[in-house]
Protein backbone atom coordinates (compact mmCIF):
# COMPACT_ATOMS: atom_id res chain seq x y z
CA UNK A 1 0.00 0.00 0.00
CA UNK A 2 2.81 2.42 0.80
CA UNK A 3 4.43 1.63 -2.54
CA UNK A 4 1.17 2.31 -4.41
CA UNK A 5 0.81 5.64 -2.65
CA UNK A 6 4.42 6.57 -3.39
CA UNK A 7 3.93 5.74 -7.06
CA UNK A 8 0.75 7.83 -7.23
CA UNK A 9 2.76 10.73 -5.78
CA UNK A 10 5.60 10.00 -8.24
CA UNK A 11 3.16 10.15 -11.16
CA UNK A 12 1.75 13.44 -9.93
CA UNK A 13 5.11 15.10 -9.25
CA UNK A 14 6.93 13.92 -12.39
CA UNK A 15 4.20 13.39 -14.97
CA UNK A 16 5.80 10.02 -15.72
CA UNK A 17 3.00 7.49 -16.17
CA UNK A 18 5.25 4.48 -16.85
CA UNK A 19 4.00 2.64 -13.76
CA UNK A 20 0.48 4.10 -13.56
CA UNK A 21 -1.27 1.16 -15.21
CA UNK A 22 0.49 -1.29 -12.89
CA UNK A 23 -0.36 0.84 -9.85
CA UNK A 24 -4.00 1.09 -10.84
CA UNK A 25 -4.17 -2.64 -11.52
CA UNK A 26 -2.49 -3.44 -8.19
CA UNK A 27 -4.78 -1.19 -6.19
CA UNK A 28 -7.89 -2.49 -7.91
CA UNK A 29 -6.77 -6.11 -7.40
CA UNK A 30 -7.16 -5.58 -3.65
CA UNK A 31 -10.76 -4.38 -3.87
CA UNK A 32 -13.15 -6.63 -1.96
CA UNK A 33 -16.72 -7.60 -2.90
CA UNK A 34 -18.14 -4.58 -1.02
CA UNK A 35 -16.00 -2.29 -3.20
CA UNK A 36 -13.60 -1.36 -0.45
CA UNK A 37 -10.34 -2.69 0.97
CA UNK A 38 -11.87 -4.31 4.04
CA UNK A 39 -10.96 -6.69 5.39
CA UNK A 40 -7.48 -5.42 4.65
CA UNK A 41 -5.67 -6.78 1.64
CA UNK A 42 -1.95 -7.11 1.33
CA UNK A 43 -1.49 -3.35 1.54
CA UNK A 44 -3.50 -2.86 4.71
CA UNK A 45 -4.56 0.66 5.59
CA UNK A 46 -1.95 2.28 3.37
CA UNK A 47 -3.72 1.21 0.16
CA UNK A 48 -6.85 2.89 1.50
CA UNK A 49 -4.95 6.14 1.85
CA UNK A 50 -3.43 5.61 -1.62
CA UNK A 51 -6.99 5.49 -3.00
CA UNK A 52 -7.62 8.85 -1.35
CA UNK A 53 -4.42 10.25 -2.89
CA UNK A 54 -5.51 8.90 -6.28
CA UNK A 55 -8.79 10.79 -5.81
CA UNK A 56 -7.19 14.04 -4.73
CA UNK A 57 -4.54 13.99 -7.46
CA UNK A 58 -6.94 12.82 -10.20
CA UNK A 59 -4.84 9.74 -10.83
CA UNK A 60 -5.38 7.92 -14.12
CA UNK A 61 -8.91 7.00 -14.95
CA UNK A 62 -9.91 3.40 -15.18
CA UNK A 63 -13.02 1.95 -16.80
CA UNK A 64 -16.25 3.36 -15.37
CA UNK A 65 -17.60 -0.13 -14.61
CA UNK A 66 -14.88 -0.47 -11.95
CA UNK A 67 -15.20 1.31 -8.60
CA UNK A 68 -13.73 4.79 -8.73
CA UNK A 69 -11.07 5.91 -6.24
CA UNK A 70 -13.44 8.20 -4.33
CA UNK A 71 -16.00 5.39 -4.03
CA UNK A 72 -13.35 3.07 -2.61
CA UNK A 73 -12.22 5.70 -0.09
CA UNK A 74 -15.83 6.41 0.97
CA UNK A 75 -16.64 2.70 1.32
CA UNK A 76 -13.58 2.18 3.52
CA UNK A 77 -14.70 5.15 5.63
CA UNK A 78 -18.17 3.60 5.99
CA UNK A 79 -16.67 0.29 7.05
CA UNK A 80 -14.48 2.02 9.63
CA UNK A 81 -17.45 3.87 11.14
CA UNK A 82 -19.25 0.53 11.42
CA UNK A 83 -16.22 -0.88 13.29
CA UNK A 84 -16.09 2.00 15.78
CA UNK A 85 -16.41 0.59 19.31
CA UNK A 86 -17.99 2.81 21.97
CA UNK A 87 -18.25 -0.11 24.40
CA UNK A 88 -14.62 -0.06 25.54
CA UNK A 89 -12.78 3.14 26.41
CA UNK A 90 -15.39 5.26 24.69
CA UNK A 91 -14.40 4.60 21.11
CA UNK A 92 -11.65 3.60 18.76
CA UNK A 93 -11.00 0.77 16.36
CA UNK A 94 -9.79 -2.67 17.30
CA UNK A 95 -6.63 -3.83 15.57
CA UNK A 96 -8.22 -7.14 14.63
CA UNK A 97 -11.52 -7.54 12.80
CA UNK A 98 -12.52 -10.88 14.32
CA UNK A 99 -13.53 -10.70 18.02
CA UNK A 100 -12.17 -14.21 18.56
CA UNK A 101 -8.74 -13.34 17.12
CA UNK A 102 -5.76 -12.94 19.41
CA UNK A 103 -5.12 -9.24 19.97
CA UNK A 104 -8.70 -8.18 19.23
CA UNK A 105 -8.89 -6.12 22.42
CA UNK A 106 -5.93 -3.99 21.32
CA UNK A 107 -6.90 -0.62 19.86
CA UNK A 108 -4.18 0.34 17.44
CA UNK A 109 -2.86 3.90 17.23
CA UNK A 110 -2.07 3.20 13.59
CA UNK A 111 -5.70 2.30 12.87
CA UNK A 112 -6.84 5.41 14.77
CA UNK A 113 -4.46 7.73 12.94
CA UNK A 114 -5.29 6.29 9.53
CA UNK A 115 -9.02 6.61 10.19
CA UNK A 116 -8.45 10.22 11.24
CA UNK A 117 -6.44 10.89 8.07
CA UNK A 118 -9.02 9.30 5.80
CA UNK A 119 -11.93 11.10 7.50
CA UNK A 120 -10.26 14.49 7.43
CA UNK A 121 -9.14 14.13 3.81
CA UNK A 122 -12.64 13.06 2.75
CA UNK A 123 -14.06 16.03 4.67
CA UNK A 124 -11.76 18.40 2.84
CA UNK A 125 -12.31 16.83 -0.58
CA UNK A 126 -16.06 16.26 -0.35
CA UNK A 127 -16.94 19.31 1.76
CA UNK A 128 -19.17 17.03 3.81
CA UNK A 129 -19.76 17.54 7.52
CA UNK A 130 -20.22 13.83 8.24
CA UNK A 131 -16.57 13.14 7.44
CA UNK A 132 -15.51 16.16 9.48
CA UNK A 133 -17.57 14.99 12.45
CA UNK A 134 -15.85 11.61 12.39
CA UNK A 135 -12.39 13.17 12.01
CA UNK A 136 -13.01 15.35 15.06
CA UNK A 137 -14.46 12.40 16.99
CA UNK A 138 -11.41 10.26 16.23
CA UNK A 139 -8.98 13.06 17.07
CA UNK A 140 -10.72 13.84 20.34
CA UNK A 141 -10.75 10.15 21.28
CA UNK A 142 -7.01 9.87 20.63
CA UNK A 143 -6.39 12.89 22.87
CA UNK A 144 -8.85 11.77 25.56
CA UNK A 145 -7.07 8.47 26.13
CA UNK A 146 -3.68 10.18 25.82
CA UNK A 147 -2.35 8.61 22.62
CA UNK A 148 -0.65 11.98 22.08
CA UNK A 149 0.80 14.54 24.46
CA UNK A 150 1.60 18.25 24.47
CA UNK A 151 5.15 17.52 23.25
CA UNK A 152 3.72 15.90 20.11
CA UNK A 153 4.75 12.41 21.18
CA UNK A 154 2.69 9.54 19.79
CA UNK A 155 2.07 6.50 21.96
CA UNK A 156 1.08 3.01 20.98
CA UNK A 157 -2.51 1.92 21.42
CA UNK A 158 -4.30 0.69 24.51
CA UNK A 159 -5.66 -2.74 25.27
CA UNK A 160 -9.38 -2.51 25.98
CA UNK A 161 -9.20 -5.76 27.97
CA UNK A 162 -7.05 -3.82 30.47
CA UNK A 163 -9.53 -0.91 30.54
CA UNK A 164 -7.23 0.93 28.12
CA UNK A 165 -5.21 2.07 31.13
CA UNK A 166 -1.85 0.84 29.87
CA UNK A 167 -0.56 2.73 26.86
CA UNK A 168 2.88 1.92 25.52
CA UNK A 169 5.23 4.88 25.19
CA UNK A 170 6.94 4.89 21.78
CA UNK A 171 8.51 8.34 22.14
Automatic annotation (TrEMBL):
Any GO BP annotation: carbohydrate catabolic process
Transmembrane segments: none
Keyword entries, A-Z: Glycoprotein, Glycosidase, Hydrolase, Signal
GO MF, one annotated term: mannan endo-1,6-alpha-mannosidase activity
UniProt catalytic activity: Random hydrolysis of (1->6)-alpha-D-mannosidic linkages in unbranched (1->6)-mannans
Presence of the UniProt keyword Amino-acid biosynthesis in the record: no
Record family assignment: Belongs to the glycosyl hydrolase 76 family.
Protein name from the UniProt record: mannan endo-1,6-alpha-mannosidase
